[in-house]
Amino acid sequence: MSPRAWGSFRLRLTLGAGGLALCTLLGVGLYAARLATQERQNFVGLQLLGAARSAAIGLATRLQEREREVEILSRVPSLAESPLDSERVARSLALRKETNTEYAWMGVASLDGRVVNATGGLLVGADVRTRPWFAAGLKGSYTGDVHQAALLATLLEPRPGGEPLRFIDLAAPVIGPAGQVRGVLAAHVHWDWIANAVRKAVREDPRATDTEVIILGRDGTVLYPLRAPGTRLPQALGRERFGMQEEPGGASYLVARASVPVTQHSDLGWSVVLRQPSAAATAPVAQLRDRLFAIGLATSLLVAALAYVLAARVSRPLERLVTAVMSVREGRGGQANFPRDGGSPELSALSDAVREMTETLLDREARLAQANAHLEQTVAERTCQLSQANEELARLAAQDALTGLANRRAFEQRAAEEEARCRRSGTGFGLLLLDIDHFKDVNDRFGHATGDQVLQQIARLLESATRETDLVARLGGEEFAVLLPELGESADTLRVAEKIRQAIQAAHFGPVGEVTVSVGCAKGDGNDTPVQLALRRADEALYKAKQAGRNRCVAADDLTAA
Ligand SMILES: Nc1nc2c(ncn2[C@@H]2O[C@H](COP(=O)(O)OP(=O)(O)OP(=O)(O)O)[C@@H](O)[C@H]2O)c(=O)[nH]1
User: Fold this and answer.
1) Residue-range definition of the domain harbouring residue 56
2) Which CDD domains match (predicted)?
């Protein structure tokens, strides 16, 4: 494996471990964040619902206080006993209005439906018979729903921003000393006071920070803050409930709705709705999620770093192991450096196993090489011996056992070579055939062993009488042949034959004494006279020599006896 491949291995392991850790942590983080978000929504929703209930109860309490106030004022002596249009009644009304700024107007209407006294003298003389509070106030205490100012709209100072004046009407009958109804006491309470009371209650509740306050009417329309008539919340939400709501623009809110309790004299059906942007509601969870992501990222980087260290710890010994194995493969086994510390018990065991296996293989290889060398040496020796034996065999095959001269086979082979040479060079060769005279008598008289000695001695004489380049052979029995290369002239052949004959005749053969030979001579040239023809002619010449009385040389070409 190349260094690049090892680098890739480390990188893949690092990315894989880091990615796995990141995915796992992100998955767990997202799941935990989702659970936490749900829990947080429930928790904040319950808090909002609690705050809405508190605000609704506070609103009902304040409203009830105003109802009680109007009811009590309607029974004070100044109203019960004094003429309704008297100064005394006017002072009582003014005093009460100054004490409680939430009242926009207080006045008294006579039984015929005319305002006879009022704070600031407003609406005095006005006909209020069609006003709901008047009819209801004649019968008992009354609290009316919020409405825009009708008669007072032009008499009171307009609100900043041009927002219309809105009131809640409270009314109670004015009872005379005899218990008879004398008129109706009415009070217009600023709607702002109601809304401020709810807002204040919510603001004071630490559970409802970043919270929007909404007051709904009985039919679900928005009474506060000011909206177009009939405006409702995007989705209906049950009373005493909380949940998620989405505005058409996409904004998401956590909403809680609580009913305003019934007061002594009213059941207005209002609800206090508190809503908080879901992002604000779940902000702590988002922070927790971001922290979890940051921790997950940091942990993933740490895991990736650890994976890289681990991969390097695993791959480095493997790299060294591979390098060592490559050295062995390239025949540098002696230089192979197997890692001792494999980084882990398994790798150490692997390295040791490969090292031991390599040492065993190298040892076997060395022994095999040694055995091969020894075998080669043995083969060379055996080959040499075989060659020598073959040479000896060849020599023996070409040699006459008794005399050590060339035998007939060797003679014929050499004669054939000489014949071929003569064909190339154009020169001739001489051929002598010798036969011992009366050799049978030698054997018969002196024994076969003596005959052998005679044959051996003649062989030596033939060798000494001829040149190194000549070939002396024993063709069989007591017959010898001499091949004389490059002696084309018959005279030369005959001269050699005669020299031989005389040397033999002159020699002394132990108990035998004198031995003579007859010689037939012929010449050959390889073309017209091949060896076989020369032999035949020499044999004929020898025959003639024998016929002529033996101990002589006869040449085949001219049959001249020497
Ligand atoms: N001792 C011995 N005698 C041999 C050998 N080979 C042949 N002879 C003998 O040589 C003799 C040859 O005799 P012959 O063929 O009658 O010829 P010869 O007696 O020499 O008479 P001519 O040739 O006519 O002069 C035989 O008696 C053979 O036994 C040999 O190797 N050793």
Assistant:
1) 1-302
2) GGDEF
Q: Does residue 561 lie in a domain region? A: no
Alpha-carbon torsion, ordered 4, 6, 9, 15, to 10 deg: -70
Among 240, 267, 302, where does a domain finish? 302
pLDDT of the residue at 490: 56
Q: Probe ligand 1: pick from 435, 456, 478, max atoms within 8 Å of CB?
A: 478
CB 99 within 8 A of CB 111: no
Query: Ligand 1: which atom is nearest the Cα of residue 447?
Result: 1
- Ligand 1 centroid, distance to 436 Cα (angstroms): 8
Give how far Cα 440 sits from Cα of 4, 28, 446, 458, Å: 100, 128, 10, 15
Compute the distance from residue 438 Cα to the ligand 1 centre, in Å. 7
* Number of helical H runs and strand E runs in the chain: 13, 16
Helix, strand, or coil (residue 446): helix
Record the tokens describing residue 317, joined without a space: 């010994």
The CATH number for 129's domain is 3.30.450.20
Two tokens at 248?
Answer: 């058409």
Ligand 1 neighbour 515 (Cβ under 6 A): no
pLDDT tens digits, 470-505? 999 999 999 999 999 877 555 688 999 999 999 999
ipTM value, please give it. 0.92
Selection from 456, 441, 367 nearest residue 405 by Cα? 456
Domain boundary among 252, 286, 302: 302
pLDDT at 491: 63
CATH number of the domain encompassing residue 489: 3.30.70.270
- Judge whether 536 lies within some domain: yes
Cis peptide before 225 (omega within 30 of 0): yes
Q: Tell me if 458 CB under 6 Å of ligand 1.
A: no
Amino acid at 437: D
CA 44 to chain centre: 47
d(CA 50, ligand 1 centre) in Å: 157
* Tokens matching residue 77: 């002596």
pTM of the entire structure? Answer: 0.54
Q: What angle do CA 547, 550, 551 make, to 5 degrees?
A: 155
Instruction: Write down the H helix ranges in 74-169.
Output: 77-81, 87-99, 132-139
